[in-house]
Amino acid sequence: MGIFKKIFSSEKKETLDKGLEKSKTSFFSKLSKAVAGKSKVDDNVLDDLEEILVTSDVGVKTTIRIIERIENRVAKDKYLGTEELNQILREEIAGLLSETNVGEATDFEIPKDKKPYVLMVVGVNGVGKTTTIGKLAHQFKNKGLNVVLGAADTFRAAAIDQLQVWADRVDVPIVKQDMGSDPASVAFDTLQSGVNQNADVIIIDTAGRLHNKVNLMNELTKVKRVMQKVIPDAPHDVLLVLDGSTGQNAFEQAKQFTAATEVTSLAVTKLDGTAKGGVVIGISDQFKIPVKYIGVGEGIEDLQVFNKYEFVDSFFK
Length: 317
Prior knowledge:
alpha/beta, eight-stranded mixed sheet, 12 helices, 8 strands, elongated, disordered N terminus
């Protein structure tokens, strides 16, 4: 398949390769054992492959879809050698991701017809939400964009303090109130401040609690409704941040948040410290929400725009 002959940015690709090393090593050690001594892909190999995909946190539903696609290839080609399995997995998983990540971004870019572009970030505490916001602010600022942050996670003083640290580090303005303030009020003030400062991008942090789906839904709905008093079509993107190292727990969080609010894109973090990188494939497929960013390291540059071909190439390299 010609898609994998694409030339990738070497530095970014090296970081991605390194970030997915644990996932790749774990997956291929299992795959090597499954096909050892076998010359063709038969039912036994497919059964083993199914187990490997599930235990690599791809998820049951997505695993079944991948196995079905490979079964179709076996039926069509009549004979499939185990040495071809790696390439076929690459092609079928890339095809699966293509169904969701249509028109994916190639850079940290925002629509030119939305100014300011309002990004609301959701996710539970501890998934790397604040860090993702800081790294996004850094990337947007590097592109010459004016960025304003809003500390609307007012239930934890630490959340406000952490966002302030990132605002100072990246050197962008932040709008905040005291702990316990109304999150919608903070969001309203941030959008007004952003408009007054001629901001290109406004990033709103929100509380990371899954205490009760109804409360979460009401809270996020209120924040959105109040923002729309300033910018009628805000937010332009609702980004859900998930911790890739939690594997199946990330699926559950995605389920809760997509039920509570309209999530339009995903960021999957902490992929460098885990063997659960397959979770990106499953979440992208099952929720039909594009993965926009992935975190593959602790450095400020280690938040990457997700590219399905680069990801699959690194995973199966």
